[in-house]
Specification:
Length: 415
Amino acid sequence: MKDVFATRESEVRSYSRTWPVVFDKAQGSWLYDEHGKGYLDFFAGAGALNYGHNNPLLKRRLIDYIERDGVHHGLDQATSARAEFLHTLNETLLEPRGLNYKVQFPGPTGTNSVEAALKLARKITGRESVISFTNAFHGMTLGSLSVTGNSMKRGGAGIPLVHATPMPYDNYFDGQVDDFLYFERLLADSGSGLNAPAAVIVETLQGEGGINDSRAEWLRNLSELCGRHGILLIVDDVQMGCGRTGPFFSFEQAGIEPDVVCLSKSIGGYGSPLALTLIKPEHDVWEPGEHNGTFRGNNPAFVTGAEALRQYWSDDALRDSTLAKGERVAGTLHELGAKHPGLVSKGRGLARGLGFAEPEMAGKVSKAAFDRGMILETAGPQDEVVKIMPPLTVTDEEIEQGLEILRDSVRAVFA
C-alpha cells in the first residue's frame, strides 16, 4: 500500500516521511498502523485533536446528527447546528470571561481565519502594513505567509511577500534590549520609514517557531502600545487556543482583550475542519458577502464543537488537568536538561518543547521515539526543538509512558 504514496502523491508530503507507516485506526491518545501496532500520539494533529482521536462523547453526537440527515453542507445558511454552536460558544466561553465578540466563519482552516483578520484590519484602518514577529507562523496562503518568519516556507510563495514588517518577539535579544524599544522608536520617528500599521499579529506562544513563550507582562505592554497608536491587535490562537496552554484562550493569563482572535484546529472538537475569526463588535464592518467561501461553516464540526465546549469547558476541570500535566512534563524536561548540557525546557500547559543546542539532535530524538512507539514532531527555524503536544485528554499513565519513552530516546541519542 505504501507504494501508492510515492507513485501518486505529491513530493510535498512531509509527515508520511517522518513516520513511515500506514496508519489505520486511532482512539484517544493512540494511533495504530495497518498491522495493529500502537503509537502513543504526542503530536495530536498539530493541535487539532486536543480531545483525542475519535472521542466517544463527540462521536456519538456526530453519528446521531448524520443518521437524522442533519444538514452537512450549507455555506453560511442558518442551520440548527450553527445556532447551537453559537449559543454554546457564547454561554460557555464568552459570557463567563466577560468577552464580547462577533463570530465570523471565514473558511475551514487556520490560515483562512488569519487571512480574514488581516483583510478586515486593513479595511477598518485604511492602512496596508501589518507588524508580525520573528519566528512567527500564521499559515501558508500568501497573506498569512507574509507575516510568517520561516524562510523555507516563505520561499515557496514564488513572489515577494510585502506589506508586513517583522519585529523582535519576547526575549529575542536574551533580555539585553528593553521590550518594544525598537518598535516604539520607529512608530515615533517620522523619518523611520515604517508605514503606519493596520495591525499587529502575534502568537502568545509560538508553536511552529520553536515553542517560544511570551511573558504576560510583554503581552500587556504590546496591547497597550497598540491602543496608544490606533493599531489593531490580532491574536493567532489557532494552535495554542482551545485549552492547549491551560485556559481556553492562550491570552487569558495576560488579562488582555485582543481586537481580533483567530481560532481553528481543535475548535471543531473532533478534528473536522472549522475556523472562527472573533471580532470586537465595533470592528465588524464587513459588507454582506464581502469575504466568503464555499466551506465557511462546517455543520458536522458545529455539532462536535458545541459538544466539546459543553463537555470540557462548562467548568475548570480540563484547564486544571492540563496545567498539572504540563508541570509534570516540564519536570522531566528540566531533569533531562540537568543531565545533558545544552538541552532547554520550553513552553506552557501541554505545549512543551525540548530545545537542543545541536539542532540535528532533535530529529534524532524524534526518530528514536518513533522507533519506540511514540509520535513526536520537531519545531523551530532549524527543527531544533522536540515538540510535546499530547491530547489534553491524555491520561496520567500515558503521560508517564510518553515521558519514559522520551527519556529513553534522549539517552539513546546521546549515547
